Amino acid sequence: MAPASPTGLGGRLSIDLGALQRNWRALDKVSTGALTGAVVKADAYGTGLVAACRALYAAGARFFFAATPDEAVTVRATLPDAHVFVLDGLFPGAARLYVGERLMPVINSLPMLEEWLEACLSRNEALPAAFHFDTGMNRLGFRLNEASIVKRLIEQIGYQPQMIMSHLACADQPSHEKNRTQLALFSALLQQFPNIPASLANSAGLMTGREKHFQMVRPGIALYGGRAVAGRRNPMSQVVTLEMPILQMREARTGETVGYGASQTLTRDSRLAVVGIGYADGFLRSLSASNARLGGRVAIGGRIVPVVGRVSMDMVVVDVTDLADQPPRPGQMVEILGRTLGVDDQADAAGTIGYEMLTNLRLARATRSYFGAEGLGG
């Protein structure tokens, strides 16, 4: 995460922890009958791991999913009583760390399973873990034809995992046939592991069908205000606001070009604002504009204006000609993400997804602040 500005000058990144809590509670209400976890990997999707974990715990979350051991150790230090899973699994030779920090690896291969069972035998203790089976993602996970081997190995020592997991590849597209295929494969798999809790649904799976909920759901993107389901209105509260300052105002003439590569030629006399944000802050270079394509947008005083030319490392130029009735000024804050332009609005313009926009927040050279959390005390 980029350090906050020691001067307080420059940009402002505001995280509404109250909105984060409302989002978790809303999803928990939808998933009635299943436990609702919280995926906090990648610095809690760019919002700040420690602050997000505290807020989510105060809202009622007790099960947290980190990607790496380092993330999981931070969650454990922040929340001593939480249940913490490591989605990347058991790193070779790291069982002692996991045991000492009370972390639950998501076991996804036979070598990993064998090492974990050896740790259980050496301590004469059924150390908790989840098992991840691949039902069609071809990423992490046991292959389905390994289920009988997994079952034999755990039955030999009387071990039971805390949970059987899989992950949906196309949940953001509810009508995709792969969702039905994966659900059927996962349901069949569970027959080999009776009476063990199961988890399949991410944010989109949670929001598109109770048949995917099982005993635990694992929302991620929806917690942080991002769109989980393609083609549907996003019902989640906005969590993140990013504002950056105008560095300079300038006049430019018809026929002049803007930015590196002279990729955009002005077609009218224009008033331009140079804004202090660039790809080094996570404002993707794919938000660049040219005469052939529209790029990203920003909002000034609640009014949307377009990016002109290429996004640079530290700066972007926007066309404010149409704001002549309320001319912007140097030092004025420009909304990059917020109420006017959400995470997914910028992601759509960049040809990417809200996940990437959010996780890039850790790059933003901006003073970070938190507000709105309930139940944190102090």
UniProtKB/TrEMBL annotation:
Enzyme Commission number: 5.1.1.1
Q: Which residues carry this modification: N6-(pyridoxal phosphate)lysine?
A: K41
- What does the sequence similarity comment in the record state about its family? Belongs to the alanine racemase family.
In its UniProt entry, the species of origin is given as: Arsenicitalea aurantiaca
Q: Which reaction does it catalyse?
A: L-alanine = D-alanine
Chain positions recorded as substrate binding sites: R139, M313
Q: Which UniProt keywords apply?
A: Isomerase, Pyridoxal phosphate
Q: Know the name of this protein?
A: Alanine racemase
Alphabetized HAMAP family for the sequence: Ala_racemase (MF_01201)
Which gene carries the instructions for this protein? alr
Which cofactor does the UniProt annotation name?
pyridoxal 5'-phosphate
